[in-house]
Amino acid sequence: MEKIRWGILGCGKIANKFAADLKLVEGAMLMAVASRDAERSKAFADLYGAPLAFSSYEEMARSQDVDVIYIATPHGLHHEHAMLCIRHRKAVLCEKAFALNSTQVQEMIGAAQQHKVFLMEAFWTKFIPQYRQVDSIVSSGAIGEIRMVQADFGFLAAEPTPQRFFDPALGGGALLDIGIYPVFMATSLIGRPTRINALMNAYPSGVDKQIAMQFKYDNGALAVLSASFEAETPVEATIMGSKGFVRMQARFHNASSKVELTLGKEPAQVVDVHTEEGVGYQFEARHVTECLQQQLIESPIMKHSDSLLLMETLDRIREQCRITYPADR
Asked: How many C-beta atoms lie closer than 10 Å to residue 37's C-beta?
């Protein structure tokens, strides 16, 4: 089977990690990279062995030498860039947060369905072995029925604070940047919350620099979640059930996390998790490559409905805290 030819839109930090991990994906090759800075695009292409370097996003989207484009720009630009690629009938893997609100997500999904092209949110946590193992443990019933999920993500933002952290036009705030990970843990494992309570500390611009969230579900389950640019936090996730609990240790969202399982009053046991070289982006890239080889237009693992539920939940949290973006209008 011919290799799937990847393009990368944007040349920032996360694009570098993805390009390095793409080398670990059999059946995939990095064909092109695009940046609005021609020199930066050329340097990135040279570093990772991409044959093509574009100084225009549209030029790469039009290229007949690219099958799928990974969008690695800031999330305030995701909707614009995803729609550009979809209009040119390119498959899209778009970094989280998928967009700025659920209206944009619905437009992206609608366009992908209309043009019959693959579209998936690049929520890498859902594909790392640690999360897959936790999901398997929960699904097996080993910890019983989920009663509570606790998850946090926080770090002390360095000064001067980057504009993307506080600018509403860029989707600034802790919620969409890092709070999305704790929210994902709750929505992916329990589903749509019936009730949401949220409190935040705001930047002068009105977006959150720190936020605490509580979810309540019809079955009585609760989620206690937080995100912060004001404090270093454990960055752990614990899923508690009627028979025990499973914990994803420090930096739960990435492939460096350790997983512990505790059943009843027994001592905690470390769960054996498959590891391989790389940062962890290869797992989602491998999945997308396989989906395209099978000519799918939607992932069976990270479905369109999953991304829409996640964004609708983030919208509800922002509404509670009166956080608004220009895109909401």
From this structure: 11
Indicate whether 1 pLDDT > 80. no
Phi (first) and psi of residue 212, to 5 degrees: -125, 140
CA pair distance 104, 97, nearest whole angstrom: 11
**Two tokens at 225?**
């979640």
User: In the chain, at which residue ranges do the beta strands (DSSP E only) sit?
Assistant: 4-9, 28-34, 52-54, 68-71, 91-95, 119-122, 146-154, 195-202, 208-216, 222-228, 237-241, 244-248, 259-263, 269-270
Q: Are 255 and 275 in contact (CB under 8 A)?
A: yes
* Beta partners for residue 33, in sequence order: 8, 53
201 exposed, middle or buried (CB, 10 Å; 0-12, 13-18, 19+)?
Answer: middle
Q: What angle do CA 15, 19, 23 make, to 5 degrees?
A: 165
pTM of the model: 0.96
- Which tens digit of pLDDT belongs to each residue from 100-115? 999 999 999 999 999 9
CB 72 within 8 A of CB 10: yes
| Chain CA centroid to CA 32, Å | 22
Q: Is 156 exposed, middle or buried (0-12, 13-18, 19+ CB in 10 A)?
A: exposed
From the list 146, 142, 130, the residue with the least C-alpha distance to 264 is 142
Catalytically annotated residues: 96
Amino acid at 269: Q
173: left (phi over 0), alpha (psi -120 to 50) or beta: left
Nearest residue to 241 (alpha-carbon basis) of 152, 99, 311, 141: 141
Rg (Cα) of the chain, in Å, rounded?
Answer: 20
Give 114's DSSP letter.
H
- Whether 161 has a pLDDT exceeding 90, the answer reads no
CA 292 – CA 288 distance, rounded (Å): 6
Torsion, Cα 255 153 104 305, to 10 degrees, reads 60
| CB neighbourhood size of 276 (10 A) | 11
